[in-house]
Every structure is written in structure tokens, then in C-alpha cells.
Design a protein that fits this description.
Helix content is 18%, strand content 44%. By secondary structure, it is of the alpha+beta class. The radius of gyration is 21 Å and the shape is globular. Residues 1-24 form the signal peptide.
Length: 340
Amino acid sequence: MKHLLLRRTFLGIILILLSTNAFSQKSFITTIDNEKIIVDDNFFDIQVGNEKIVYKTPNNDNKESIKFKNINSGILGEYNMKRMKIADEKDEQLCFTLAQSKGKKLVGYNKTTAITKFIYYILDANNMVIEKIETYPYPEEKYVKTRKDAEDKIRKHFSDCKDVMDRLAGDNFKRQENVKYSKLMGKMLDQMDAAKAGIVSFFEKPTFSNCDASQQESPSAQLSGEVAISEQKYYYEKISTTATAMGMGSGSRTTDFSFKGTITIKDNSFTFFTKNVETKYKIISYQDGIMKCDDNVNIHTVTIASETGKKGSFAYDTKITLVADKKMGGSTTYYWCKQQ
């Protein structure tokens, strides 16, 4: 019972801190009968635990679903899928490709029975196995060792892939120099880092990084110009997050939290403060009500809109929306605020 509670707590913290949502591009699925289904970019839900995808087709409000066993291949936003038989696997599996770089690919699948297991392979140009990765999202030390081994193998073979390295860096809970933590929060995040909890999101959100095709600049180099914005301060008691919990079989959902803090815009910086954490971003672009904010690693998008309403007993007059960089999952957080 104690271990079960520990697992639930561990996975719950990961879900809150690493919540993600689907990013939209041109999406489709091909079936094992060679039928091509065009999928609405703005609505698809990959339910790994249930081994199915729930989706809508363009200009159709009806939800449809398809089992993994009936899918041959597909591209859904940033997800790249293909049915494959790898090495010693008994049967073909619908595999996700996480990375491709200089002839190597990282492919595999998530398997949920009594427990959840991530099974991935590093393949060469001929689809021969170079390394196998088998790891789990649980807090016990034997599982922590498998996550450390998984990260080491990925870094060994994809160190030249900036996007993959950025995602692994983003999975470190305490990597940002611009964040100040309370002792309690810092200790908790240190423990999560030591347990390699962050790499769980790498496998639970198996988006595709095509490093052969990417010619990436640093985020700061992509945006420029002086930012002129007046000083503003907001107080909030409620936040909402919209997320897709990959691998949990739970799909997209919005969750409300009671969370008190302030948001201050001053001297070209955007600062969140609670009693536990202070996070500061540099505002590098502001146009048409949209701010681009730099945390020295990634670029996040912030919008501020006048909106009145109530969340519980808290009356708000402003909604601030933060969309995290897609390398950190692209999660969306809404802050229901009163302007000070």
C-alpha cells in the first residue's frame, strides 16, 4: 500500500509539472487497409494506455477512434508513427519515432499492462539495433537506474541533435538559473532530478525531432528589437492548465488549481512570484498584445487580455495566458488575475 501511494504521488507530481498539449500541423493516419484518414490538426488524442487514437476529421464535430492495431502509419502534429517489427520483438508494433540524426533513429512504444513500460530502440540506417532502452515511470531505485541508463544512451547517440538535447535539458526540473526556489520546493525538485523523473515526459510525449532537417538558431537570435511596455502588476488566486497526459490514457483536459501569487511586468522583464518560487523572464518581443519571453534556454508566449468573471469566490478582471516553448511540451497555463 505504501509503495502504491508513493507511485501515485510520484506520477501525480510529474503530470502537474510536465503537462503537455498537442501542437497542430497537417495530420493524417493510414490504416492497415491502406485507407488515408485526414485528421483535424486541432483535435486528436493519443491514448497510449488504451492503445487507440480519438480524433475528428476536418469540418466534422463527431469524434471517431481507431485502435493502434489498425494503424499502419501516421503523422499527428509533431507525432510520427509507423508499424514496425524490430529485432527480437515477436510481433509488429505501432512505433513512435522520437529522433532522427545522421542515419540513426530512436523508435519504440509505450506498453501498459499491470505496469507501464517504455520500450525504445536506437537503430542504424538499415534498421539494425544499436541499443535497446527499457525503462519505467516509477520512483523505486531499480526503476531510477533504468531512467539514468536511458538518458545516457540517448545522449551518447544524439549529442549532435540540438532539439533532443534541449528536450532532455528541459526535462531537468531545476535547470533554470532565472528561478528562485524555497528550501522545501528546492529539496523536492532536487529529489525529482536525482530520480530522473523528467525523462518520463520524453517518452510519454514522444514527439519527433528530425535533426537531419533542422537548421536551428538559438531562440534569442530569432527575435530582436527593443521592447517598450508599461509597468504592470497583477494578483492571482486561481490558475488553470490545459494538458494532454501522454501514456496515461487520459487525454486532453483542463484542470483548475488554487494558487496565490503575483505577476509583475517591469524593466523589460516578466516575473511570477509565489511564496515558494520566483521566476523571471526577459521580454524580447511585444507586438499586437503578444509577448515573447526568454528564460535563457527557451522562448515562451504570453498574452494579456481584459476579461471579467469568477473562479470560485475569486473575481478576476484579467486573463494572462502562458504557452510554454514546445521543447518543454507547449503546455498552456491560464492565470485569472486582478490588476493592481
